[in-house]
Specification:
By secondary structure, the protein is an alpha/beta fold. About 35% of the residues lie in helices and about 20% in strands. The two termini are about 25 Å apart.
């Protein structure tokens, strides 16, 4: 379908996932005219480098209290969001892991985002991903974290590895390795 809009959005360049290279005229309205503007903005202007705080700023958490308060205490040891007016503080083993690994493995946050959402970069606005503790689907500490990319969700066992940061890191690393090996290619 060819757009009948005038060439308001013309850029001189070729777009890659790393940069905009100025080499020739590209009429983006012809290439992406059928896409909603919001989707195009998210693709074109998302944040390419993913840092720990980028992920933490878009996270939401769903705790599972079906096994009682002791289990919820373990879940809160993994991640806890404290709201004080407009200020938000996120604490626990997962935020500490993200912040620590940013130094030793700069791609860790990006790999986690990709595993959870299928996105390689943080969309500009309105994007959230959910961390869900689930007692019914993941009944024990041997369960690996699971992701659902259609509704960006990271599911952790309801027991939350009993709040053990080392166990969380081990299981999350295993899930990311499996995700890296398999990927999202549908060939």
């Amino acid at each position: 379908m060819v757009s009948t809009q005038p060439p308001v959005t013309e850029l001189y360049g070729l777009i890659s996932n790393q940069s905009l290279e100025l080499v020739e005229q590209v009429k983006l309205y012809l290439c992406y005219g059928s896409m909603p503007t919001e989707a195009l903005n998210r693709i074109m202007f998302s944040k390419l480098v993913v840092k720990a705080e980028d992920l933490l700023s878009i996270v939401d958490v769903r705790y599972d209290n079906s096994w009682g308060p002791t289990v919820v205490d373990s879940q809160l040891k993994i991640i806890s969001i404290h709201q004080d007016g407009e200020d938000q503080k996120i604490t626990g083993a997962l935020p500490e892991l993200l912040r620590r690994r940013e130094e030793s493995d700069p791609d860790f946050a990006a790999r986690l985002l990709y595993f959870v959402s299928g996105h390689m970069s943080v969309p500009t606005e309105g994007f959230k991903f959910l961390i869900e503790f689930n007692c019914l689907e993941s009944k024990d500490d041997d369960s690996l974290p699971v992701s659902h990319t259609c509704d960006p969700t990271l599911k952790l066992p309801g027991t939350a590895y009993h709040g053990d940061p080392e166990k969380l890191e081990e299981k999350l690393d295993m899930s990311l390795e499996y995700g890296d090996a398999v990927g999202f290619d549908m060939e």
